[in-house]
Structure formats: C-alpha cells, structure tokens
Amino acid sequence: MAYRISDLVASVAPAGTDQLEMSKAGAAGSRSLTLALLRTALFAGSTGFTAVDPINVGSITITQGTIAALAQGITQTVTWNNAAVSFVAQDLNVTDTASSAASILARWRVGGAAQFTVFKSGLVQSAGTINAGANLSCASAGVVVFGVRSTIRSSADGQVNVTNNAGTSFTRLTLGPETALFPSLKVNGANLQVRLGDDSGFTGLAAGSIGIGQAVSATSPLSIIGLPSSSAGLSTGDAYLAAGALMIK
User: In sequence order, what are the beta bridge partners of 248?
Assistant: First the structure.
C-alpha cells in the first residue's frame, strides 16, 4: 500500500535512531523512514549524486564523470514576480569562528588550476580577463594595483594619483607604445620633463601659449616671471632679461 506524504502524520515515538515514524491518519500501524532509505528513494539510479548524511557532515558531491555532450552539473530556474521584493537566488552565510586568512568562499577550477576565486576577505581573483558590460567601481579609498608595479588612486574628487607600488614616487607616463615615435611625461624630482616614449631623449611640446613663473597670459603667447636681469652667475643655456629682451647665455 502506498501513502502520500500529505496523508501521513508524524508518530509521537520513533522506533529507532535517525528515523521518522509516519502513519496513515486514522489507520493502525506506521512506517519508518530512515535517512538511508530516503537517499535510496530520491537518488536511485543517479550515480553522479552523493548525498552525505547532513546530520554528520552536511555536504553534497556531484560527480558527473566524463561527458561528451552538454550536461550542466547544476541547473536552477526561478521566476521573480514581485517588484517590492529584493530576491536572492543563492545565499551563502559562513560563521567564521576561526579560519585561515586564505579561506575561500567560492572557487572554480579547470584542470585543478583556479580560474576564479572569492576569498573570505571579499578579494576576488581571476586568472583571466574580466569583461565588464558596464562600470568598474571601487571604494573612494580603493586602489587599482598592477601586481607589484604601479598604482592608481583618487585622493579627492577630480584628483587622480599615479605612483609606484610603494606609493612614494613615480617615473614616467607614456602616451602610446614605449618607442621613440611617441611622447612621455617624466618626473624628475619636482620637475616635469617631456621625453620620448622610450626615454631616449627629450621631445617637443606645442602649445598656444606658455606661462613660466605665472599663469598663461591672455595677451602674450609667452609669459615669464622671475628671470634674472643679467647673465652673472648663470650657466650656458640659461635665460635672462636684458633691457626687456629675452637672452640666452
């Protein structure tokens, strides 16, 4: 005789360990439903599914074996139909009483090599390229780090800082490939130099107007303040003013 679950009620006194006594409402006798019998009933013939006793371990292993056609290991479908509800398709909540800092919340591997990993700290590590269909965003104090090389950060709205990995200095920003066919901006102490992309020499700077020692003038393409009035003590190539004229020693 077969009963539906809806026809059964729980017995007051189970007959054995890990058993749930169920009986037909209003009928004599009962049937014991053990965890082993439940696994057999649910997964008989499904050789790729292992359900470990959740009372002892609480883990599920899916072993698909070798396949030669499309066969998803896990397929989940759901229809969300309430605009007032913030739905969650999957939710993992770990109580981290004690664990290594390298503990992992999720890891996907190919041939044993990790391709995508989410650590408990929230660090996400990808072995390949991440393509964003929209924006890439980080916190205001976040830093874009190129491995053990340069970093990019924003100290305030409208300000971007490019530094070495230690955050103490900067060398050169190349505008194009690092060859002599493109320019670069190089830091030399507190000075800024316009150099070739491979740093093999200086290159030109074209501008509508230039201000030296002051802001750009609205009436003159070249505005200079602070030049000495004589060549005394200057080195070859230094500029100075003589009778209002720009001179080069």
Answer: 239
CB 151 within 8 A of CB 165: yes
Q: Is residue 143 domain-resident? A: yes
Q: What is the pTM of this model?
A: 0.61
Report CA-CA distances (Å) from 130 to 133, 137, 147, 166, 227: 10, 13, 16, 25, 53
Could you tell me if 10 and 43 lie in one domain?
A: yes
Question: Residue 155 has which token pair?
Answer: 């100290």
169-197 per-position pLDDT tens digit = 999 999 999 999 999 999 999 999 999 99
Asked if 33 and 22 count as a contact pair (C-beta separation under 8 A), the reply is yes
Structural domain count of the chain = 5
122, two tokens? 């929230």
Name the E strands within the chain: 8-10, 19-24, 31-34, 49-51, 60-62, 104-110, 113-119, 124-126, 143-145, 151-156, 159-163, 172-174, 183-188, 191-196, 210-212, 222-224, 239-242, 245-248
Please indicate, yes or no, if residue 20 is contained in any of the structural domains.
yes
Residue owning tokens 């080069």 = 248
